[in-house]
Design goal:
Chain A: InterPro entries: Fatty_acid_synthase (IPR003965), HotDog_dom_sf (IPR029069), MaoC-like_dom (IPR002539). The structure holds two protein chains of two kinds. Chain A has helices at 23-33, 43-48, 58-65; strands at residues 12-17, 77-85, 96-105, 108-116, 122-131. By secondary structure, chain A is α+β, with helices and mostly antiparallel strands. In chain A, strand 3 (96-105) and strand 4 (108-116) form a beta hairpin. Chain B is α+β, with helices and mostly antiparallel strands. Chain B contains four helices and five strands; from the N terminus they run βαααββββα. A five-stranded antiparallel β-sheet of chain B has the order 1-3-4-5-2. Chain B starts with 12 loop residues before the first strand and ends with a helix. The chains are: A alpha+beta, B alpha+beta. Chain A binds chain B through residues 18, 25, 28-29, 31-35, 37-39, 45, 49, 58-60, 62-64, 66-67, 69-71, 73-74, 77-85, 126, 134, 136-138, and chain B through 21, 24-25, 27-31, 33, 35-36, 45-48, 51, 53-55, 58-59, 72-74, 76-87.
C-alpha cells in the first residue's frame, strides 16, 4: 500500500500525463457539474466569445489535478486547495499534472501543484495542503 | 452596481451529496477512485463511508442572491480555493449558501477589469462548517456594461 507520509521535501508525489483533451471530456464534465456555459462545448459560442475554439472548464482541470492525491485519501485529506487559472486548455492539448512537496508543518504537507500543457505552459498553478491528522475521524 | 452587493448572502439550501452524482462527477474528472465510488471500499476506509472528490462541492446548489445578475457568458474564472474542516461524505445532507465577499476594479492592458469575490459555505445539519470555497470571477468591460441596470 502506497503511503504519502514518507515523502521527503522536494520530492514529487506524482506526475500524470492525461490523454489529449477530447470534446467528449468537456461534454461529460458539463453534464456532471451542471456547468453548461457553451464556450466549453459549442464551437460557434466559443467563437462568439472571441475564443479560437472551445476551452476546457477551469474546474475540469482543477478536478483532474487533485487525483494525484486520491490514492492517499485514506491517510489524510486535502484541507486546502487553491488554484490560479493562468491559461486556457484546448481540445487536443496534452496536460501533465504535477505535485511536489515543498514544506512540512507537523500534520500539514504543503505541495506546489500545477497543470502544464504540451508547450510547457503552466495553465493552472496552486497549492494543496494535505492533512495527515487523524483526529477528525468520526 | 456590484459594489453595492458586497456582504449580501443567499438563503441556505439543503443539498444531498448523492452517490450517483459523486460517481458521475468522479468519472468526468477521470478520477474513479474506489474511495469515491465503491461502497465496500468506503465502509472499510477510515471514514467508514465514501467521500466526495475535493472539487465536487462546486456542483451543489448555493441558492440565489436576488440583487446579483451575472451574465452566463463572458466571465473568466480567475482563482478558486477550497478549505476543508473534514472530507465531505457521500450520502450526507448539508446546508449550502454563498456570500459576496468583495468587488474591485483594476486597470490593465485590456482596459479595466472587475473582480468579483464570492465565498461559499457547506455546513452539516448541526450547522458546523464542513468546507468553504472562494472564487474570483473576472468581468471585462463588455460584460460589466451589460450589468448596468
Amino acid at each position: 500500500m502506497s503511503t504519502i507520509s514518507n515523502l521527503e521535501k522536494g520530492e514529487t508525489l506524482g506526475s500524470i500525463q492525461l490523454d489529449p483533451v477530447h470534446r467528449l471530456d468537456l461534454i461529460k464534465y458539463a453534464g456532471a457539474s451542471g456547468d453548461f456555459n457553451p464556450i466549453h462545448t459549442i464551437d460557434e459560442e466559443a467563437k462568439k466569445a472571441g475564443l479560437p475554439q472551445i476551452i476546457a472548464h477551469g474546474m475540469w482541470t482543477m478536478g483532474n489535478l487533485a487525483k494525484i492525491f486520491s490514492p492517499y485519501m485514506n491517510e489524510g485529506f486535502i484541507q486546502d486547495y487553491s488554484i490560479r487559472f493562468r491559461g486556457m486548455v484546448f481540445v487536443g492539448d496534452v496536460i501533465t499534472l504535477k505535485a511536489t512537496l515543498t514544506e512540512r508543518e507537523s500534520d500539514n504537507m504543503i505541495f506546489d501543484v500545477s497543470a502544464v500543457n504540451q508547450n510547457k505552459v503552466e495553465v493552472l498553478k496552486g497549492q494543496i495542503i494535505f492533512k495527515t491528522d487523524h483526529k477528525f475521524i468520526i | 452596481m456590484l459594489k453595492g452587493i458586497i456582504g449580501k448572502k443567499s438563503k441556505k439550501v439543503k443539498n444531498t451529496v448523492e452517490a450517483g452524482a459523486v460517481k458521475n462527477f468522479a468519472f468526468s474528472i477521470g478520477d474513479p477512485s474506489p474511495l469515491y465510488i465503491d461502497e465496500v471500499t468506503g465502509k472499510k476506509s477510515r471514514y467508514k463511508r465514501r467521500i466526495a472528490p475535493p472539487t465536487f462541492p462546486f456542483t451543489l446548489d448555493y441558492g440565489v442572491i436576488p440583487e446579483l445578475h451575472l451574465p452566463t457568458k463572458g466571465l473568466i474564472h480567475g482563482e478558486q480555493s477550497f478549505h476543508y474542516y473534514r472530507p465531505l461524505f457521500v450520502g450526507e445532507e448539508i446546508f449550502c449558501h454563498f456570500e459576496i465577499k468583495d468587488y474591485y476594479e483594476k486597470f490593465g492592458n485590456n482596459g479595466s477589469m472587475g473582480f468579483l469575490v464570492t465565498k461559499r459555505y457547506g455546513e452539516d445539519l448541526n450547522r458546523d462548517l464542513i468546507y468553504t470555497d472562494e472564487q474570483i470571477l473576472i468581468l471585462n468591460e463588455v460584460v460589466r456594461k451589460g450589468l448596468i441596470l
